[in-house]
Design a protein that fits this description.
Length: about 350
């Protein structure tokens, strides 16, 4: 039981403690709150990974824009390969990926359902700013038009367009004749992709255009969800004005990208981020959620933003088959005012 002496001592201790320490405790509490607020604020500006894909790269995180001219390549190759290279060969003992066979699809001939899938599903957990809508893929004798259109729904403000080539494709030459969509907020893409949905790690190879500056082509690749040495290449033309031929060679030793048959970029030697799994071939036109606007810009394209594709093809390594380069005619396959 406490005595009068202990009561008086306790009262004296509290009286002595309060003036000296209340201020100190207040300062410590304030500093703790500031630290918590700063940590939250520093995270709020970072787009969180969504789905099975990493967030699209920010401009500030990517390699500087590299000027390109027809007589010079990014990696200073001494010789620019001819448009038609002939059969592809593997390095000795290089692995072969399981892959569907060669094809060329002149898209004005239609989209046979046994070969193509027009995406039509929600993007509730994805990084896109809306759902894939079948009606936003239009077929004409010239090819495909992929549209992004406003919906009026603030939860999913845009309807997007995507077409997948059924089957999986590995090492070889991938080509497309396309004209990307112009307008801030739009992303036009030609890429291979596989990931956990298909029971594989996230592997991917991209050719992308951001509509706010269609004189720059963005080249990306992923292995197991980690990106490699991506690049942004400055082209000597506005890609949205006319159709051009875009391609990449995927080999065990690396990836090479081409525009109109000219080499513009290659992966570094001994790169550890090269894809190793065959994937689907996809074309798309989309816009992202708000956190991606620092990359592709705020949507500003009126009632419709349209990308045009007139051919896609795949030639496996070791083969020499007909491809988009054989049907490409420089200029515009689509009328400039396609309806």
């Amino acid at each position: 039981m406490a005595t009068d002496t202990t009561d008086r001592s306790l009262k004296k201790f509290l009286q002595d403690w309060q003036p000296r320490n209340v201020v100190a405790v207040g300062v410590l509490a304030f500093a703790f709150c500031v630290a918590i607020f700063s940590a939250i604020a520093s995270q709020s500006g970072k787009p969180a990974p969504t789905g099975n894909r990493l967030p699209a790269p920010r401009v500030a995180d990517m390699a500087p824009v590299v000027p390109w001219t027809p007589d010079r390549t990014v990696n200073k190759q001494k010789k620019i390969p001819a448009l038609r290279e002939g059969p592809y060969t593997l390095q000795p003992d290089a692995p072969l990926l399981e892959s569907d066979g060669a094809f060329i699809s002149v898209l004005g001939n239609g989209l046979p359902p046994e070969r193509f899938y027009i995406s039509e599903h929600s993007n509730d957990k994805g990084f896109q700013g809306g759902d894939w809508v079948r009606e936003n893929v239009s077929i004409s004798p010239d090819g495909l038009r992929l549209d992004v259109t406003p919906t009026g729904d603030p939860r999913k403000p845009y309807a997007l367009a995507e077409v997948q080539m059924l089957g999986t494709y590995g090492y070889g030459r991938y080509e497309t004749i396309m004209r990307p969509a112009k307008g801030s907020g739009l992303v036009s893409a030609f890429f291979t992709y596989t990931g956990p949905y298909f029971g594989k790690p996230h592997d991917e190879i991209d050719i992308e255009f951001v509509g706010k500056d269609t004189s720059i082509v963005e080249l990306n690749y992923f292995h197991n969800g980690k990106t490699g040495s991506s690049a942004r290449i400055k082209l000597p033309f506005d890609a949205s004005e006319k159709d051009h031929l875009y391609a990449f060679d995927w080999k065990p030793e690396g990836i090479s990208w081409y525009v109109d048959g000219k080499l513009i970029y290659q992966t570094p030697a001994n790169d550890t981020h090269l894809p190793e799994n065959p994937g689907r071939l996809v074309i798309s036109n989309w816009t992202g959620k708000k956190e991606l606007q620092q990359w592709h810009g705020a949507p500003d394209f009126g009632d419709r933003g349209s990308a045009y594709y007139s051919c896609i093809s795949f030639t496996p390594l070791g083969e020499n088959t007909r491809r988009c380069a054989d049907v490409f005619q420089p200029g515009s396959q689509f009328p400039a005012s396609s309806g």
